[in-house]
Amino acid sequence: MELIVPDSSKSLLEGAIAPWKTPAYEHELQELLALADDYELPVDIPFRELTKAHLKIIHEGVPERDFGGLNGFFAWLERRKYKMHLRVFLSRWRSYRQCPKCRGDRLKSESLATKVGGKNIAEICQLKIREAIGFFKQIEFTEWQREVARHVIEQIHSRLHYLNTVGLGYLTLDRTLRTLSGGEAQRVSLTTALGSNLVNMLYVLDEPTVGLHPKDVRHLCKAIMSLKDRGNTVIVVDHQEEMLRNADQLIEVGPGAGDRGGKITFQGTIEEMLSQEDNLTGSYIAGTRGVVIPERRRPANRGWLKLKGASGNNLKDLTVEFPLGVLCLVTGVSGSGKSTLVQDTLYGAVCRRKRKDTTKPLPYTDIVGDGQIDDIVLVDQSPIGRSPRSNPVTYIKAFDQIRAVFADTLEARTHNYSAGHFSFNVDGGRCSVCKGVGQLEIDMQFLADVYMNCPQCGGTRYRDEILNVTYRGLNIADVLGMTVREAFSFFRGQNKVQTKLKRLIDVGLDYLQLGQPANTLSSGEAQRLKLAAYMSTHKRNRTLFILDEPSTGLHFNDILQLQDCFDTLLALGHSLIVVEHNLQLMKAADYIIDIGPGAADEGGTVIAQGTPEDLTRIEASHTGRFLRGVLNID
Ligand SMILES: [Zn+2]
Ligand SMILES: [Zn+2]
Hints:
There is one protein chain. By secondary structure, this protein is α/β, with parallel strands linked by helices. Among the domains are: 18-92, no CATH class; 304-382 and 540-630, Rossmann fold (3-Layer(aba) Sandwich), CATH 3.40.50.300; 392-520, ABC transporter ATPase like fold (Up-down Bundle), CATH 1.20.1580. The chain is built from 26 helices and 15 strands. The strands form five sheets. Strands 9-12-13-7-14-15 form a six-stranded mixed beta sheet, with helices on both faces. Strands 6-5-8 form a three-stranded antiparallel beta sheet, covered by helices on one side. The longest helix is centred in the first third of the chain and has 23 residues, at 143-165. The protein is globular, with a radius of gyration of 31 Å. The two termini are 59 Å apart. The structure holds zinc ion (2 copies). One zinc ion (ZN) binds next to loops.
C-alpha cells in the first residue's frame, strides 16, 4: 500500500492514489470523485484519516455505479499484462511480502504436518547449513526407517558437507540465490561439481578465491584438491599464494601486461619456481620481494570520521570511527558485513552531506566529522571504456595540452592547423580511411573480430601533412608511441603537460604508451588510471577514496604498485578506506577495522580495530590470526 499511496498526508483530491495520477488512468480517479458525494466519501482530508468504510469503497468499488475500485483496477491490469507496457506499469506498484496463508512456509498445512526428527520441511529450511548437518546426524530412525532413508540421508549429508567445505555453512537452506554475493554464488555452483561423482572431467575455474577471506581460501583449496583426487583435472586461473602453493603444476604467463605479456614464462612445480632466482611470481612467494612490513606506520591522529548506529542488513547497530589521512582497511570473512558498512552505508551517508547523487544509504543515525573532507569518491574495477579511441592521455585530459603544443609550432601556424587538427576523434587531421583509429576491424563472421593496421596511414592515425608537423624533431604519432616517462622528459618546459603526466607516474603507470588503447589495459592498470584522472582534475581537494577489493585479480607485482599509489595519495593529503582481504595489503595498512566474527547473523559487529600488530593480539579475530603469520609474530 505504501507504493500505491506514497504520501498519506495527501487527500484523494490532491492525488493520494499514485497510479491514478497518471494520464492514462486519471479517469478512474474522476469516477471515484464523481460518486464520492453520494457515498459520503470525503475527498479533501488526508488519506490516512479515512475510515474503514471509506477505504472499503476505494478498494472494492461500487458495483451498482460500475466502479471497480483499486481491486477491480489491478484485476483489469492483471488480465492485460501480456502487453509489455502494462506489465511494466503493474510492476511499479508491487512489492514482495509474506504470503498471509502459509506465512512464508510455501506449503499447505497438510504437507507441513509431516515431520522428520520433530521438524517439518519449512522448519528444516530455516536452519543454517552448518546446523542442518548436525540435525540430520542426530535423528534416530527405526530399523525400517533407516532402510528406506539410507540413500536419501547419504545424499543430504554429502551435499550439505560440500556447501560447508567451501565456507558457506552460515547460509540458511532457504536463502534465495539472487540474494547471494558473487563469490557465494560461484562457490555454490562449485559444490554441484564437488557433489557429482563424475571422473575424467576437466574443470576450469576463473579466480574462485575472489572476495574470500584467507580462512575461506584454505577450505576452498581443500575442496578443489578433492576434485583432483577423484580423478579429475582442474585448471585454475588465480593469484592467491595459498592456491599456488597447493598446485601440482604452475604455468606463468607474462612477463608484463598487454603488449608486454602473452608468453609462457614458466612451467613447473612450486619448488622449481622458488628455486629460479629471476622468477617474478616465485620471488614474491619466497618473500624476497613484496610488501615489506613498514618500519613506522602512519599514526591515526589526522582526524576521524564517525558513523553512528549503522543497522543495514546484518549490522548490529554499529558505531564505527574511521581514521582519516591514513591507509585504513576494513576486513572480515565473506558475508560479515564489510561492504554493507562501507559502500552501502558510509559512502551514501557522506554523499548525502556533500550533496552528491547516489543510491539511498542503508539505515544509520548520524555521521560526524565529514567537514574534514571535501569530496568522496568510490573507485571500483569497472572497465574504463571499450573503445580503442580512449587511451591514458585522453583519459587524464593531457592530450588537449599536447595538441596545443603541436598547434603552437611554426609549421602548424603557417598552415593554419588548430589543436583540433591533431585530434584523432574529429575530422580534420585524422586519417580518413580508419577515422583515426589506426586499425581496421575485419568482421570474421563466426570468429572473433580481427584488427589490422590501416593501410592508408600505416597505423599512425593521421594524414601525412599533419605528420609533417614536428615538435623537437618528433611528430604527434611518435609522441603517442612514447611511454609516459619518455614523454615526461620530452615535454620539459611544458608545465601543463608535465603536471598531468606526473599523475600517471605517481600511480605507477610510467611504463604505459601514451596511445595505448584503454581496452587493452589490465583491471589493475585501469583502476590506477582512474585514481590518476581524479587527482589531475581535482587538485586541492581533500578527498576520501573508497575502494572495494582493489587487489581483486591483481598479481603480487600489481599489488606493490597499488601500494605505492596509495602512499602518493596519502602524501597529497587524501584519505583511504579500503575493503580488502589481501594479506599483502593488510601488512601495509596503518589501521584495520575487522568486522565479524562470522558471516551473516554471526557477523555485523566490530571484532577488533587498530594497527595490524594490535589485531594479532585479539583472539576472536580470524584476520588477526592470519596477520600473525605474515608479520612473523608467534
Ligand atoms: Zn503461501
Ligand atoms: Zn588510417
